Amino acid sequence: MKQFWTPGELRYESLSKAKMKQVLITLWNVPEGSRPGILVEHVKNLFMVYKMHELRVSQKQRLKEWETEMNYISSDSAKIYVENEADLEGPPRNFTYINHYIAGDNVTIPKSPPFGCLCEPECTIGSFCCGKLWNSRSAYGRDQRLLAELGTPIYECNKLCRCPPNCRNRVVQNGRVIDLAVFRTKNGCGWGLKAMQVIGKGAFVCEYTGEVITNKEADKRFNYAFTGDKTYLFGLSYNSKTNYPYSVDGSLFGNITRFINHSCDPNIVVYPVWVDCLDPNIPRLAFFARRMIRRGEELTIDYMCQLKEEEEIISETFLSSQCQDPTLLSEHASWNGLTITCKCGADSCRKYLF
């Protein structure tokens, strides 16, 4: 008998296909009335484990194919890994990996900035760079880690700027450089995302992508959560908490950031970033490390992050099916009074998401 196990919860032993066939033939040759009950149950259990092993082999193959596909499509230099050592769940259905925003119906995403900075040979803290051109500030230090306080809008150099591609003010646009893994959690939160290397405080981690849709369409898709469909909506609420015109939906089109789970004590935070699209209502959404993150640590954000009004420049509304089953929303939630139990397990847990 061969033992199959993983560091997670899938630990079992299974016979080879030939041995399993031999056991079934042996049992079949024993007259039905003479078969010991304990032997019959043992063979049943062996057969169930064997079938589970077949499912596990098929699952691992499909997950590997999904991993390969995402790495092929991804324009980032860093690698994506996929791990499931908890259950037999396979790749998500009806999900297309994309690298950048795509425009939904009645949405136009501008791609031509009106002007760029004149910094040569490169941008510095003291130069009149893009952040200062837009009445903000320099966002990054020489090591390309964040200097900007939470809530500060980030204006990176764009395609009209004279600075080189390795300019300190070109970070998010150059893509993810940190290896990450989509993995199956063991606490009932579905898929999650974790770091495959140490991440320093202030480092750019990843960017949220998806379909940019009108808020009328976002309201419609949000309602689907109450009928069992999954929504991954992120409100582009830079200019207003309530009257922002667009949201990003990562449910059908997106990248691995759609699998980021909630925590009341998150290790990454979101910043609005503008590069070539300078429409104030369509910032890119970039995640940065709030503190040092260990290898193997799950990446989490606060789904209900709300800064004080005088400090707030961007607020987020991010509903994912990862830490709550959307089929339960109709029983415990409504538009006017949402109540969803939080499962993050942090010492500072608020106990409820909404």
Produce the secondary structure layout.
Layout: E1 2-5, E2 11-14, H1 17-29, H2 37-73, E3 80-83, E4 96-97, E5 102-103, H3 130-133, E6 154-155, E7 180-184, E8 191-195, E9 204-208, E10 211-214, H4 215-224, E11 233-235, E12 246-249, E13 253-254, E14 261-262, E15 268-274, E16 284-289, E17 300-301, E18 318-319, H5 329-332
Parallel strand pairs: 3-7, 4-13, 5-10, 6-15, 14-17
Antiparallel strand pairs: 1-2, 7-8, 9-16, 10-12, 11-12, 11-18, 15-16
Helix pairs in contact: 1-2
Binding site for Zn(2+) 4: 264, 342, 344, 349
Subcellular location: Chromosome; Nucleus
Domain Post-SET: 338-354
CATH-defined topology of the largest domain: Beta-clip-like
Strand order of the largest sheet: 5-10-12-11-18
| Uncertain parts | 1-8, 306-336
**Largest pleated sheet:** 5 strands, mixed
Count of alpha/pi helices:
5
Radius of gyration: 25 Å
Order of helices and strands: EEHHEEEHEEEEEHEEEEEEEEH
In terms of DSSP E residues, the strand content is 15-25%
CATH superfamily of the largest domain: SET domain
Q: State the name of the first-level CATH class of the largest domain.
A: Mainly Beta
Query: What separation lies between the terminal Cα atoms?
Result: 50 Å
Relative helix content: 10-25%
Structural class: alpha/beta
| Count of individual domains | 2
C-alpha geometry? elongated
The mean pLDDT is 82
The count of DSSP E runs of length 2 or more, i.e. the number of strands, is: 18
Q: Tell me what the CATH architecture of the largest domain is.
A: Beta Complex
Enzyme class: transferase
GO molecular function: histone H3K9 trimethyltransferase activity; zinc ion binding
Subcellular location: Chromosome; Nucleus
InterPro entries: H3-K9_MeTrfase_SUV39H1/2-like, H3K9_Histone-Lys_N-MTase, Post-SET_dom, Pre-SET_dom, SET_dom, SET_dom_sf
